[in-house]
Recover the amino acids of this structure.
């Protein structure tokens, strides 16, 4: 009988026993990790839809996984199921179809998209199309499958069916922090003793015409399209926006005692989670970085550690002028002078900004960083920003002793989440 | 989550619907049992429109301009809940309020969509045409509005609720899960106080289109919920907003807050209707409610009017709740999807605090009269139109 582990607050310790990753770099964590640590980019010209007239023409779309109809919910479901399959397979707990715990899924916003609207408009005999005409077309029941497909909760319910998770599955949206929130909800459920295992997934397949244009209208996207692989430049002086991208990650979270009792391989520990909402602005961080600082400090306190115990920061690092400046300000305030000694890198320099999935994918990469004792680089770092004097692990991966990492996720709507991760406790 | 180790009290209730705003407007409207609906403006559907609201009372004009109607309804009802709990403007408390919002998604500019679809019929280069029209016609101020979490984001900005902010997406069960997780966190000591709720704007052709795919929207004429049965099934969508302030007994007592009721139990599950699980899942949720008595108790149902969900719920209630009066507020004020369960839990808490129940609004006779006495327990059900089942027990604090 193994010893019962409790954390500094007397809670069950939450281990990660399975990880699955899908990004524009490929399917599976082995392939992803190899390419990520080689500094390879998954960013390319968009071919999914016409880009004539658009200032941004590159993205990290995943074009090697089919979905029908081609829309964000269907793509998100297909990415998620592959990530879940890999994670559950690795954990050895349950099977795809019978997983013994609840499901928390971070999903992108849902609505009927332009290809579907256009398809419906084609069926209408009217020369002028409005919502009355679309409703008449819908009444024919010819597009009845769109009902479940475009329910806000539809994708999550279908995933719960396919994966066989237990209880009421939760679809959550905290914008670009969603993936981290999904992990936090799973961690909390295990800490409350509601379950021994939980499946947390972040997934996003929302690179489509309107989503791209909406972000462009907010001036959030880079317009440096050539070459596509150089478009995201986190922390560089010449960064000018993020690159939309797709992907998914799934983490099997498990009570450490339970995992050890069944002889599971422990991939890492989620030691703490912190959050703090920002009431300053819908898209901008409070200029004093107080919510960013607060969420990191809350996470460290939740983990029972201090910034001196952290030796790697997996940055949110979107490559927007605003995010990278505010994130640098935030971590500098939390880490003080010691920030010089703590490497911080952005996976988004290679895989782009995977939006609702980013928090989960980057937590997965943080755990791999600890497992492999190797830090993935920030690529495209050629012109340092003098206002961000951080060790961003420029352009080449680095072997390093990493015992504890934090991963930051910040989202529009004032969302801030930070996760603290470590290797298996001995 | 089932039994909470720490009591979870309901200390603030903010309500907005076609009945107006606030506790008395809702109590009086339900007591009048006179449904308020519109059969003219969204043909062929029945819609319950929101009452005229002076949004300026809770939301600065500059913020209103950044919001769509569902966000304004939601923000306004969140403000009412904070005010009712006595914590509006109390930055010390608001800094640790954990917000959990049940939301759908942003509203379409239906005129723009229609105009683009019409233009696409004759466009020479449809791809370029769509790109150019979207670039010029989507309003930058509202281009964030498709994000489900922007209701929560707006509440943070307007009321300075910053402890944490989480949004659960989708349909009736997101409202159940939001309250379930918020209560579980408080029960387990992971949180002390939460702001939980949602909002829905039914006066939108885009949501009526979505309901139309599944033939789920109620077509005129209006009938009360139970009377729709299988042959006239449908959701009479209602514009409404509902937020609750819930907190640990310790936190409420420390600040001298008045509790309307205790949220004793909440649970959720999912029945695969195509596998015939619906009635068994509802019954097992019901049977797991701890300490429920058949006297001095009632059921507030979130029945949608859709089939087979609502006829299935009625079958189970006829069996398990045969001595209890049942009420469907949705018959009077419509069905507000993500916001309906928080609304009904709020109404249950009001009923407990007033120790009484409003009259039936039901032409079938299924809703029995309240025979007087002291109302002590209310079961709130949520059987979604499509999928997702939830149940809660609200009791005297």
């Amino acid at each position: 009988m193994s010893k019962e582990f409790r954390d500094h607050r007397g809670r069950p310790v939450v281990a990660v026993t399975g990880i699955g990753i899908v990004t524009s770099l490929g399917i599976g964590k082995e392939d992803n990790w190899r390419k990520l640590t080689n500094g390879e980019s998954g960013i390319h010209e968009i071919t999914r839809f016409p880009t004539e007239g658009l200032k941004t023409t590159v993205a990290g779309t995943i074009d090697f996984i089919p979905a029908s109809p081609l829309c964000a919910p269907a793509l998100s479901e297909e990415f998620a199921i592959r990530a879940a399959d890999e994670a559950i397979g690795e954990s050895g707990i349950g099977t795809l179809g019978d997983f013994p715990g609840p499901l928390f899924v971070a999903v992108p916003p849902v609505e009927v998209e332009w290809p579907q609207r256009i398809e419906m408009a084609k069926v209408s005999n009217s020369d002028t199309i409005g919502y009355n005409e679309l409703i008449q077309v819908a009444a024919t029941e010819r597009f009845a499958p769109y009902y479940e497909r475009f329910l806000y909760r539809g994708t999550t319910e279908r995933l719960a069916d396919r994966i066989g998770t237990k209880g009421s599955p939760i679809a959550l949206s905290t914008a670009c922090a969603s993936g981290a929130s999904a992990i936090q909800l799973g961690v909390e459920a295990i800490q409350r003793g509601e379950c021994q295992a939980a499946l947390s997934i972040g997934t996003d397949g929302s690179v489509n015409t309107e989503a791209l244009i909406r972000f462009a209208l907010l001036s959030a996207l880079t317009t440096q399209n050539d070459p596509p692989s150089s478009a995201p430049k986190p922390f560089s002086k010449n960064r000018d926006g993020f690159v939309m991208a797709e992907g998914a990650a799934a983490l099997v979270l498990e009570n450490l005692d339970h995992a050890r009792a069944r002889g599971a391989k422990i991939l890492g520990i989620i030691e703490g989670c912190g959050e703090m909402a920002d009431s300053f602005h819908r898209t901008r961080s409070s200029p004093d970085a107080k919510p960013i600082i607060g969420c990191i400090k809350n996470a460290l306190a939740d983990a029972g550690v201090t910034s001196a115990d952290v030796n790697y920061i997996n940055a949110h690092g979107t490559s927007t002028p605003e995010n990278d400046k505010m994130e640098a300000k935030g971590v500098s305030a939390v880490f003080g002078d010691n920030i010089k000694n703590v490497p911080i890198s952005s996976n988004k320099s290679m895989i782009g900004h995977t939006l609702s999935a980013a928090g989960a994918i980057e937590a997965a990469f943080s755990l791999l960083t600890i497992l492999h004792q190797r830090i993935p680089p920030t690529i495209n770092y050629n012109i340092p920003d003098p206002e961000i004097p951080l060790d961003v692990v420029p352009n080449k991966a680095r072997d390093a002793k990493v015992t504890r990492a934090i991963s930051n996720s910040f989202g529009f709507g004032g969302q801030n989440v930070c996760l603290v991760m470590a290797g298996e406790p001995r | 989550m089932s039994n909470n180790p720490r009591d979870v009290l309901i200390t603030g209730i903010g309500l907005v619907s076609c009945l107006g705003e606030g506790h008395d407007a809702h109590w009086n409207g339900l007591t009048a049992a006179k449904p308020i609906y519109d059969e003219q403006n969204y043909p062929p559907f029945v819609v319950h429109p929101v009452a005229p609201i002076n949004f300026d009372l809770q939301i600065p004009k500059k913020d209103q301009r950044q919001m769509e109607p569902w966000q304004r309804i939601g923000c306004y009802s969140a403000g009412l809940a904070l005010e009712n709990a006595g914590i509006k403007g109390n930055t010390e408390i608001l800094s640790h309020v954990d917000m959990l919002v049940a939301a759908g998604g942003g509203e379409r500019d239906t005129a723009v969509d229609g105009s683009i679809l019409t233009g696409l019929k004759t466009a020479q280069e449809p791809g370029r045409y769509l790109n150019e029209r979207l670039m010029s016609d989507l309003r930058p101020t509202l281009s964030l509005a498709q994000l489900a979490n922007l209701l929560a984001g707006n509440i943070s900005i307007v009321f300075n609720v910053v402890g944490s902010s989480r949004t659960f997406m989708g349909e009736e069960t997101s409202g159940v899960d939001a309250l379930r997780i918020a209560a579980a966190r408080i029960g387990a000591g992971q949180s002390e106080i939460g702001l939980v709720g949602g909002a829905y704007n039914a006066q939108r052709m885009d949501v009526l289109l979505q309901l139309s795919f599944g033939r789920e929207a109620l077509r005129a004429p209006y009938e009360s919920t139970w009377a729709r049965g299988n042959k006239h099934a449908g959701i009479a969508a209602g514009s409404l907003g509902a937020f609750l302030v819930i907190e640990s007994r310790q936190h409420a007592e420390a600040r001298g807050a008045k509790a309307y009721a205790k949220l004793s139990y909440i649970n959720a599950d999912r029945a695969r209707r195509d596998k015939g699980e619906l009635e068994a899942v509802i019954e097992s949720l019901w049977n797991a409610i701890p300490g429920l008595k058949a006297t001095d108790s009632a059921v507030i149902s979130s029945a949608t009017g859709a089939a087979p969900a609502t006829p299935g719920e009625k079958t189970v209630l006829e069996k398990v709740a045969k001595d209890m009066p049942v009420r469907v507020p949705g018959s009077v004020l419509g069905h507000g999807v993500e916001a309906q369960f928080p609304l009904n839990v709020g109404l249950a808490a009001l009923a407990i605090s007033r120790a009484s129940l409003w009259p039936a609004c039901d032409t079938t006779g299924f809703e029995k009269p309240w025979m007087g006495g002291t109302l002590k327990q209310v079961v709130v059900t949520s059987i979604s139109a499509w999928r997702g089942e939830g149940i809660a027990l609200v009791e005297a604090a």
Q: What stands out?
A: The radius of gyration of chain B is 21 Å. Chain B touches chain A through 79 residues (CB under 8 Å).
